[in-house]
Amino acid sequence: MAINFDNALGIHPLALQFRNQRAELLASNLANADTPNFKARDLDFQSVLKEAQGATLKLTATQPEHLQAPGAGGSLGVAPQYRIPSQASLDGNTVDAEQEQVRYAENALSYQFSLRLVGDKFSGLSEAIRGE
Amino acid sequence: MSSFKIFDIAGSAMRAQSLRLNLVASNLSNAETVTSSINETYKARHPVFASQLQDAMAKPGKVGEADTGTGVNVLGVVESDAPALAEYAPEHPLANAEGYIFRPNVNPVEEMTNMIAASRSYQDNAEVANTAKQLMLQTLRMGQ
């Protein structure tokens, strides 16, 4: 029986990819906390999961002039959504630094969790190969 | 690997915030430099930030770029338009013919709050970079 990484690892590599991309977005929210007119953005796990499970049809851009569908630029095929600000700020910035910090920390923990799952899968596989 | 983008993003923010801190230091240190001419008086300087996304969106044909994180660009440094403060001090050695000296339009209270905000932002971004570094190291050790 051949080992298939996709079957063995399941959805966890995708989760890692999602956490990575979300960390990037949250980092840019925090980085732009003082940039006028910057709108905070975030990725929704549910929509990414739905996308991953029900692989939807995608259009291929064969010419540079082709318009990209929303989300086509991101590797997960889901577009980031803008946050609804809890407090309006005068310069049009919608970043709430505290909230973003909390979300970044939570995302980092989830990343470690997914990483642990993938890592354990790998050590399980290598144990099976060694036959110990 | 795309995780390195976090370092770029946090790094650009730290660069922008340290420029802001530098300008605050410059403003505060020059707060007491009096001159005899209103044109030579030091003017308070402030940075202008823009996200790199706004720059990217201004260029056509880069639609896909919008989906990834963006760093901070410093568009430039502007001088404050607030008028220099004229003070009547005829006995001052720098006083002009009418007996006036001119003080810079630096507001120390504003500068101090600016300094605190900049240092907080800097800390936030340093923390982001640090966490990303730890995650990267753990990813490298995966499966061991």
> What is the average of the pLDDT values of chain B?
86
Rg from Cα of chain A: 19 Å
Overall shape of chain B = elongated
Q: Low-confidence parts of chain A, pLDDT < 50 over ≥5 residues? A: none
Q: Figure out the total of helices of chain A.
A: 4
Structural class of chain B: alpha+beta
Strand order of the largest sheet of chain B: 1-2
Q: N-to-C terminal Cα separation of chain A, in Å?
A: 18 Å
Order of helices and strands of chain B: HEHEEEH
Overview of the structural elements:
The complex is a heterodimer of chains A (132) and B (144). Chain A is flat, with a radius of gyration of 19 Å. Chain A starts with a helix and ends with a helix. The model of chain A has no long low-confidence stretch (mean pLDDT 82). Chain A is mainly alpha-helical. The longest helix of chain A is centred in the last third of the chain and has 34 residues. Chain B is 46% helix and 16% strand. Chain B has three helices and four strands. Chain B is α+β, with helices and mostly antiparallel strands and 144 residues long. The longest helix of chain B has 33 residues. The chains are: A mainly alpha (132), B alpha+beta (144). The interface between A and B is large, with 41 and 44 residues.
Observed structural traits:
heterodimer; A: 132 residues; mainly alpha; two-stranded antiparallel ribbon; 2 strands; flat; B: 144 residues; alpha+beta; two-stranded antiparallel sheet; 3 helices; 16% strand; elongated
